[in-house]
């Protein structure tokens, strides 16, 4: 949050200046309102600051390239513009991304809010103010919009109408605003929850599934052809040693940026596990199995403590990863050391994940309101999670289909780079035996090849192969990366030695 505050202060410094603007996005009225209401900043000031960032990055990139490369000036201008556009675009999108992040977080918990409020509707007294109950419910949650609902609650005590406050409300989440509008239209009466099963998060994830193969292809292209292109730049000595070493962090930054932008799933679906590691998958599966048993036992109209203990005894032979934390919680219950709510808090701290926190917080609220009806509400949460897991299985199948291609490219890349880099001794022989002073070829040979320079070149190429292999393996969430990356590097060294020895013997 502090970074956002510093960002806003920086952009607001351009408010009083008539400077050029660099605009990347056409914001609709909703986003313009959120910029002003939530962040107290204008889109125009951000565009002014973006132009300043663009010019600063262009000057640094252009000056740096003139000093440390021998590229044509037009080429330097071209890639300096591209780099500057990337940095200024990321700068321009800070507030937009923060709103999108808050929207995703709010959407991720929205279906739990719907279930929670449906329980309130079912158990509340007939004369209670349901609109006020909804406002109280949201202000008790722990997400950014809760603070605004606390402000609304204060205004209501000052005499404002709850319905009017909600009618004028706009949040980062369109889904949440639509939900409030439907409640206002229905006067906060009970409605069919099934009408809201398809959320925008689920729609976004389905789009992500359709795009992911194209995005993987782009990462393949960059990961393969950047190192190969670097080989030719080294071969013709178009870059000096300093720029060559600078290429490693630049390449790492580029692949990391592409991976985050294209392939890292930043969806906030609660039922979706972002990595396919066996332990995390088993833990979540055991957790859902325990919750289903807990909901079934609550239906028997017994206390939450007994239902918790009974669920553990029914499933302890099937539980492995969660056995230790659950066993400790059971011992606290049996010793009357903690209440049920304290056990839930303890379990949240032991599981250490926002996914478990959201679910356990919801269950704690449900049981506090009505333990018997909580059974149905827990089952509704589980039904939504199982729907998310069906989407996850589609993603897993797509990534499994890319597995062969990924391993093929990981072992093909070092062979290609090793074969090309094996020509370095050939160019060294040319330099030592041809008198090219004043000729065009001298433009390329700006430093003599020796063991020191060859060592740096090999180090850079090994680094690029390792970086590429690492991100390729990240695509399929492959855990045992070191043996694969090490094998790929060995293949490169062997190919380089074979290629260079054969070229040297030929001459």
Fold topology:
Layout (H helix, E strand, L loop, with lengths): L1 H11 L16 H11 L3 H26 L4 H20 L1 H30 L6 H11 L4 H13 L4 H6 L6 H12 L14 H36 L5 H23 L14 H21 L5 H12 L7 H12 L5 H12 L2 H16 L1 H31 L1 H19 L2 H10 L17 H25 L5 H26 L1
Helix pairs in contact: 1-3, 3-4, 5-6, 5-16, 5-17, 6-7, 10-11, 10-17, 10-18, 10-20, 11-20, 12-13, 12-17, 13-14, 14-15, 15-16, 16-17, 18-20, 18-21, 20-21
Rounded mean pLDDT score? 82
User: What is the total tally of β strands?
Assistant: 0
Q: What's the N-to-C terminus distance?
A: 64 Å
Approximate shape: flat
Quickly count the helices: 21
Calculate Rg over CA atoms: 30 Å
Ranges with pLDDT <50 over ≥5 residues? 435-448
Can you write the helix and strand succession as a string? HHHHHHHHHHHHHHHHHHHHH
Beta-strand content bin: under 5%
Q: Biggest sheet, in brief?
A: none
Structural class: mainly alpha
Helix content: over 70%
Can you summarize this structure?
With 507 residues, the chain is mainly α. 76% of the residues lie in helices and 0% in strands.
Task: Give a structural overview.
The model is unreliable at 435-448 (pLDDT under 50). Helix content is 76%, strand content 0%. With 507 residues, it is mainly α. The N and C termini lie far apart (64 Å).
Question: What labels would you give this structure?
Answer:
507 residues, 21 helices, mainly alpha
